[in-house]
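COMPLEX REQUEST
Ligand: 3-iodo-tyrosine
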Amino acid sequence: MPARLVPLSAYREYSPDDMQTRARAFAADLHRRRTVRDFSSRAIPEGVLDDCIRAAGTAPSGANLQPWHFVVITDPATKSRIRTAAEAEEREFYETRATPEWLAALEPLGTDANKPFLETAPALIAIFAEAYGERADGARVKHYYTTESVGIATGLLIAAIHHAGLVSLTHTPSPMGFLNEILERPARERPFLLLVVGYPADEATVPDIARKPLDAIRSTR
Ligand code: IYR
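STATUS: Structure written out below.
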């Protein structure tokens, strides 16, 4: 089947000055983003997360197969079940699985096995990566670059949440198989990440850590 091509009508060109201003402003705004672990229980205005997920769903993906699924969790009982399961895995991680090197790397973040934010925060977004798709007749559809695709979508989601004026935490209890069970997602969906979303607590603090400067992350030739 030949590709059906349509004009690129949504593209906008900016003058070099505007381009520089926009690039600088966008970088500065993203620079304000911090991963937050102290959440307020304030509810998120209705509809905002839907738009953030719409933004995430614009991510490029392997063969445009869009191998992602987002579950928005606001139900207190479900959050509580997730907290219990996540903390069990985290205790295992902090007490046994994590190497001393790994624990040392985490020290500046001040994290431990207690995850109260899984109940305090108004919303959790469980992000699943579909290992393969499924047609209506049950036939499998192969997916390509699934991890890259879902990683990009997650990055856009985090940026969209920040842009909307909310904060998030990328939480990765490992393994996360309990999410399939609690959220009743099929086995072909692999839990990718649990994003905790909401307003920061009034007295929220963040680790005193810095981002690498441009010279450390970019080279030219
Ligand atoms: N999943 C654990 C440990 C953890 C691991 C990394 I790598 C981090 O950047 C942060 C935490 C936890 O959530 O505490």
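REMARKS: The pocket of 3-iodo-tyrosine is lined by residues 90, 93, 106, 109, 111, 171-174 (CB under 6 Å). The domain at 35-201 is CATH 3.40.109.10 (NADH Oxidase).
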